[in-house]
Amino acid sequence: MVLRSLCVLRAQAAASLSGLPAALLPGGSGLDLPGSGLVLRSLSTDVFQNLALEDWIHDNVDLQSRSILLLWRNSAAVVVGRHQNPWQECDLRLMRRSGVPVARRRSGGGTVFHDPGNLNLTFFSSRKNYDRARNLRVVTGALRALRPGIDVRATDRFDILLDGHYKISGTAAKLGRTAAYHHCTLLCSADRALLASLLRPTCPGIHSNATASLPAPVQNLMDHDPSLTPESIARQLAQQYLAEFGSGGLSVVPVQPSDQAFAGIDRAAAALRGWDWTHGRTPRFSVDAALELADGAAAATASVRLEVKAGRVEACRLAVAPEWLPGGPPARLAARLLGARFCPSEAAAVAEAFLRAEGGGATGGGATGARLRARLGDLCDKMVALM
Amino acid sequence: MAMRVALRCVSANFSHKGPRLSHLPQISAALQLRRTDLTRTLSTTSQLSTALKFTDKHEWVQVDGKVGTVGISNFAQEALGDVVYCGLPEIGQKLENMEEFGALESVKAASELYSPLTGEVTEVNTDLAENPSLVNKACYKEGWLIKMTIENPSELDGLMDDAAYEKFIKSLE
Question: Model ipTM?
């Protein structure tokens, strides 16, 4: 009987476009599998699609009697925790220039860097069976099977350390109504230079009660042993997981999130990609910064204080020495920024409109007027650059 | 909460000097009420008419007229571990019964919060921004999460009272 169900399952898996056994989808029959573990591998490398896939599995699959491990990898992205501040956690300016998006997970925890050299693991279970330590034993067990004697240990914060010192994995989790998921990263061959350059604040002087990350020295498993590639580790993890959580000897099932079978994933991915979620969900924060102003001949410093709520400027105070600029224009700029997103493109648009309004009549003619306009332009540039 | 109201009534009555013989029975009744209320509130948190009602997701709601105060139960806060952040909705946000309205982040995980009723958020506990551990320390009092209007009072009938909730928790273990 065991063999027959396996054949049925494999046939179904082959036939279904998504690769996910049809029985697990809503309306499916729910197969009687000996053992209750299942390993899925996402074919997408889009962080938003994969996060949406996680939520989909959590919301739609019956996890009361079954456990699932999802393996996934993304193109370069920075992923912040649910209640974190992306301006604080990463250099959004550098990320825009490098084409690296920021994503916000639904689970808690700190900020991590994803790229194809990082393997993501999501352990799905019922709330009752939620056990992070057990899940991490699967990971350390797999690594030891591949490389006997390797010193990998889970800490009480559920990080995994290599040689007692280098962080190779960070953990986060979400508890829902009746199910839960625990996910973690695994650094195999990630671009550490890019990681280090991106995981830095966008601007100084941020005060917030958002959850903070705990920076730690990291290392790639492949640097420790070249055979520890994402592929070899993924294969071993699947075996280890199925041994621990029981299975019918099912192999890893590939899953394509964009498949129609996953109703609503595209919409969910779009919501996760949207500014309102990635940036707008940031807990209220304030920024206290100094702007270095110059006009080629002289220099001055302006101080700015911004209050940002739901990603938008709620209050703005700009103080510039009166010898540098009269009080009127900076105050008018501050007023125009109210309600705008704390984001350079929107701030630039506001600044442009401001400069148009100020130009000519307000600043006066001649050399003085030109210098004033240049200084105002510089002030605007520096404000925008802050974000 | 009802006890405080009774006390206020008593002191207000006393402040009126002069022969108010007709009020005396009321005063002594109020005093009596105060004494019995005192003993009752010491023994349990939910014997008053504005008793707590519980959901199977371990949230409680306490109704006071048209407004419900929402929090999480002791069982929930223990299961959560130390709360490090409270992700709560904005005032004015409309909530549906059983809809997710926020999340509590603890060292264990981000745990979603589900609205026990349909209504609109009227107040959010701002103390939790600086002091999220209030949820652990005083989950029925200072650790309240939000206050909301009650659009469908009949939804309260679907919730568990103290005794039923205690039974429910035992069944989970």
Answer: 0.82
